Amino acid sequence: VASRRLVYFVDGLSWGPPACAAALTIVICAVMSAPLLGACRRSRDLSLFCSAMAVALRAGVRASKCLEFAESFLLNPRLDRGLAEVHRRLDDGEPLSSALFYAPFVPRTLAWAVSIGERRRVLPQFFESFARLYRQDIATFARRARCFLPPLSVLFFAAFTACAAQTLHAEFWFSSCHGP
Length: 180
Description:
By secondary structure, this protein is an all-alpha fold. The chain has helices at 2-15, 17-58, 63-71, 77-91, 96-101, 108-120, 123-178. 86% of the residues lie in helices and 0% in strands.
């Protein structure tokens, strides 16, 4: 009897409409939050990169060593791969701005600002201002997340409650049809 109840319990959770609603809700949450999280992670990585570059350049370190210092703070393997290409270009004698311009993860505006900073000899200030901009982006993403995550969590808990209700209904139906 207990094994039959377990089968009905699992069957009710895995194939019933509320379970489908729960799965759909989880998929919707993941799909809606993925672009937001990806952009937030990118801003975080670029903020860390710019901050580390500003600190190292302000200390008088060469550009190639600054990149090594900045890489130690990064969590994104895609940015690490892009910076490896920047290292290669710097070793070939290119300036930092043109090396960053061809890196796939680095925005063009940052590379152009680095070019202006190199010409004006105020590169650490440019990196600091971009780090500040990326930190502001992260704050914007956090405000957006606070706006749309509560309704999504309500939907998720509603689907979870529906699954629990279906399980109880299946248990009562099994009891009434098959006895105690």
